[in-house]
Amino acid sequence: MSSADILYLPEQPAHDAEIDLINEEAFGPGRFTRAAYKIREGGPHERLLSFVALHKDEVIGSVRMTWIAAGKGRALLLGPLAVRPAFKNIGIGRKLVHIAMDAAREAGAGAVVLVGDAPYYGPLGFQKIPYGQIVMPRPVDPERLLAAELQDGAVAELRGDVVHAVLAG
């Protein structure tokens, strides 16, 4: 299989069941206890900024974006990002992140935040958020709290408790 065999498209409601299975496979039942999941419970993700990777009409990867608020700052929360095991390590996850980041930039987002591994996300433009600047609704390793700034000063505006943007008004 080559990367030419993979089709990247905006997420559609018809993809939901396959995305749920991929996330279950990737993160297991513990995913419901994570801080990012708690934020996502506050409202819907932004389907127009969420994408899937398809191989032979099967969803093999997915990335979702959700609007969040922290203080007066607004940003997008990237995740979950998941790729089926048989398709890992060929660049699908990185490509999904690039597509989502480009869409976020076009939508006028100032920053994208995530909880993830710096060695993976660092080369994609993410840096550690200063310790204590934002507070997730559940415990998070501060070394894994990362952001990519799309507009100057946007990350600095994120301060305090992180919630789904719908809950911030």
Question: How do the helices and strands line up, and which of them pair or pack?
Answer:
Layout: E1 6-10, H1 16-27, H2 35-40, E2 51-55, E3 58-70, E4 73-83, H3 92-106, E5 111-115, H4 118-121, E6 127-128, E7 134-135, E8 145-149, H5 154-157, E9 160-164, H6 165-168
Parallel strand pairs: 4-5, 7-9
Antiparallel strand pairs: 1-2, 2-3, 3-4, 3-9, 5-8, 6-8
Biggest beta sheet summary = 9 strands, mixed
Rg over C-alpha atoms, rounded to the nearest angstrom: 15 Å
Q: Give, in order, the helices and strands.
A: EHHEEEHEHEEEHEH
The residue fraction in helices comes out at: 25-40%
**End-to-end CA span:** 46 Å
Mean pLDDT: 93
**Strand residue content:** 25-35%
Give me the number of helical elements: 6
How many β-strands, per DSSP? 9
